[in-house]
RNA sequence: GAGCGUGUAGCUCAGGGGUAGAGCAUCUGCCUUUUAAGCAGAGGGUCGAUGGUUCGAUUCCAUCCACGCUCACCA
């Protein structure tokens, strides 16, 4: 750092502004490679980027600069640059430069830019973790001593992005996923809306909220745990389809698949039911997979996941029967506990039928569903916002999409009977009174909205972070969130 | 929240009760087509923090902090 300060001072003394105002770039690295032609006259370009390596040989040097699309080699000669070549001697890996020059091919065959003019655009004062690499005879990129410390990578994501180009690709894909979802929904006429992040009551999911305080009103507000209840209010208001892609916040543990703030896409479509939504989500996710990776198939860890529709659909009971040989249909709580016991599962004594079934499913079925699978018809106890099944008592019209052993989407035929909804909320309040901090809160205004009448509606939620994990083959949510939550540095 | 593990130079890592090591990076010199450039030389560390044991601790012990993995929790 001190040395670089000295260099900075010397550059200033040479009458060079180390922090330029702009640079008239005409080309990116990759575009130059694409358009290069050995037989054509040399093309003049202006490129800019960060110096990533330097090879000095007295009165001539090579360096690689990195721009947003890749790297390109620059050849600098004292004969061509004069005073600026001396300035170049004061430049380091990490500095951002602009180069005017012509494109040529070196003796070693690398397409490079022969610098005719050099400008310093930003002097770097902090040494970059230098990653050396070479391409072996098979064309594989070998990286020596990569910048791999996860704590540093997450805390200083800017450095991670500079040094680890594959990280950049993950976030480019993430943006593509979101823009594809948006385009897909817009094309079908659904309206993108924004609903409150700060809510006087939180709802739409089972989770503990973050609480904050509004000074002027002197009231506590909650950061939303879901968008659901506000979006359905908009269906009451007469929109045919509304969707929102936004951050939700849940005040719970963090691990490989959970970050306290995460991105959710929710969509509600009037006059549709969950059967319609199954086809919708198949089309949506297969389109997204195809747009992002150019194929419906994606490698996730040691599995290959194929999003080509149609996906397998089976009921939760059938899935449990298939994977455990046990039939849960019509069983009472005592019988279910016995079955759970036989399967070697420990189920808390206080929980009800729904939770026992959910436990069996989560442990014995879900992890083994690798290909996209639609699991339908969940126990009513777990789903206070879903409509009762039209002919299966005790169940609701709900489905989840399981991919690579994890829940990716959750959808229902939305409950639009205000009296039933009130009864369900009251059940939740009883759970809350018994100490379940994650039980839903009764929302009088939401009930009032339903009392005005909500058309039959299908709703869907997709965890964008988890979707990104699958489509980019990342095993931690922290690798698909630019700035994941960390404890403060001390 | 629990268990296990990690923390040493800018980065990646060795080491080990007696004042600290490598490669790359950095600095100096040579080098006008190099590419993990090369050659010769040099500098760089509160060994995560705080206590304890010891003549002596970076090393052993305890506590704390941060991170990772697994589990628990979690739609």
Describe this entry's structure for a reader:
It is built from 15 helices and 20 strands. The two termini are 21 Å apart. Helix 6 (157-163) crosses helix 7 and helix 7 crosses helix 9. The mean pLDDT is 92. It has 490 residues and is of the alpha+beta class. It has an eight-stranded mixed sheet, sandwiched between helices. Strands 1-2-3-5-4 form a five-stranded mixed β-barrel. The chain binds one RNA strand of 75 nucleotides through strand 1, strand 2, strand 3, strand 6 and strand 7.
Which band does the percent of strand residues land in? 25-35%
Largest sheet: 8 strands, mixed
> Count the strands?
20
Helix content: 25-40%
Give me the side-by-side strand order of the main sheet: 8-12-13-20-19-18-17-16
Provide a compact summary of the structure.
The protein is an alpha+beta fold and 490 residues long. The protein contains 15 helices and 20 strands.
List the defining traits of the structure above.
single chain; alpha+beta; 8-stranded mixed β-sheet; 490 residues; 20 strands; RNA-binding
């Amino acid at each position: 750092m001190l040395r670089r300060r000295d260099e900075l001072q010397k550059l200033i003394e040479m009458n060079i502004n180390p922090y330029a105002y702009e640079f008239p770039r005409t080309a990116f690295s990759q575009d130059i490679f694409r358009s290069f032609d050995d037989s054509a006259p040399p093309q003049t370009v202006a490129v800019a980027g960060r110096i990533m390596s330097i090879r000095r040989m007295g009165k001539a040097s090579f360096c690689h600069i990195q721009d947003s699309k890749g790297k390109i080699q620059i050849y600098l000669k004292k004969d061509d640059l004069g005073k600026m070549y001396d300035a170049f001697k004061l430049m380091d890996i990490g500095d951002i430069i602009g180069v005017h020059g012509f494109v040529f091919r070196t003796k070693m065959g690398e397409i490079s830019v022969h610098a005719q003019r050099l400008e310093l655009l930003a002097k770097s004062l902090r040494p970059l973790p230098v990653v050396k690499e070479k391409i072996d005879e098979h064309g594989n990129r070998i990286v020596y001593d990569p910048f791999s410390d996860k704590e540093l990578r997450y805390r200083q994501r800017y450095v991670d992005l500079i040094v680890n180009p594959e990280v950049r690709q993950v976030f480019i894909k993430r943006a593509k996923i979101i823009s594809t979802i948006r385009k897909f929904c817009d094309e079908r006429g659904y309206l993108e809306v924004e609903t409150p992040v700060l809510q006087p009551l939180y709802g739409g999911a089972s989770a503990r909220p973050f609480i904050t305080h509004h000074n002027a009103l002197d009231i506590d507000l909650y950061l939303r745990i879901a968008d659901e209840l506000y979006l359905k209010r908009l269906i009451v208001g007469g929109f045919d389809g509304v969707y929102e892609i936004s951050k939700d916040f849940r005040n719970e543990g963090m691990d490989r698949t959970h970050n306290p703030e995460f991105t959710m896409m929710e969509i509600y479509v009037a006059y549709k039911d969950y059967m319609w939504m199954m086809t919708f989500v198949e089309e949506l996710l297969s389109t997204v997979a195809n747009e992002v990776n150019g194929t419906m198939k994606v490698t996730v860890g040691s599995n290959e996941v194929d999003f080509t529709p149609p996906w397998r659909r089976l009921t939760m009971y059938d899935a449990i029967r298939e994977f455990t040989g046990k039939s849960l249909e019509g069983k009472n709580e005592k019988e279910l506990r016995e079955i759970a016991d036989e399967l070697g599962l420990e189920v808390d004594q206080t929980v009800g039928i729904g939770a026992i079934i959910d436990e069996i499913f989560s442990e014995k079925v879900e992890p083994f569903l690798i290909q996209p699978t639609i699991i339908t018809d969940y126990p009513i106890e777990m789903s206070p916002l879903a409509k009762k099944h039209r002919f299966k008592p005790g169940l609701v019209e709900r489905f989840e999409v399981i991919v690579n052993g994890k829940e990716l989407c959750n959808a229902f035929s939305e409950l639009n009977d205000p009296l039933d909804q009130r009864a369900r909320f009251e059940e939740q309040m009883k759970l809350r009174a018994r100490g379940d901090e994650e039980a839903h809160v009764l929302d009088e205004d939401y009930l009032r909205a339903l009392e005005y009448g909500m058309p039959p509606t299908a709703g869907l939620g997709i965890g964008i972070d988890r979707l990104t994990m699958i489509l980019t083959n990342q095993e931690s949510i922290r690798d698909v969130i630019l700035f994941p939550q960390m404890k403060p540095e001390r």
